[in-house]
Amino acid sequence: MVIVAPLSVEFVLVAAGVSLLMIGAVATLMSGNVIKRLAGLLVCGAGAIASLAALGAGDGALIIGVALLFVYAVLGVALVVRLQEGYGAIEAPEIDAADADNDTQERVS
Length: 109
Hints:
By secondary structure, the protein is mostly helical. Helices cover 82% and strands 0% of the residues. It starts with 8 loop residues before the first helix and ends with a helix.
């Protein structure tokens, strides 16, 4: 006879938070689009905060986590806008190609 212990709510919440964290990390690392990388980073942060909340972290830690996630979002959007203005693209291969062209022009001059 196999005895199966019921899953606790805390375990399910922690597993969901860790799943969000891993999905965000994979999206951040695998995407070539800068906006998708930023979205992946934000999903990763949300998963980390959800996991902390499920594990019973203090209110101060959760507030600081949310504040840091907001700062990441604001700085990330500012960087995306600056990349679009500077390079005319938000795809990483296009930005790398523009950097390589700029480097070769600086070496020739």
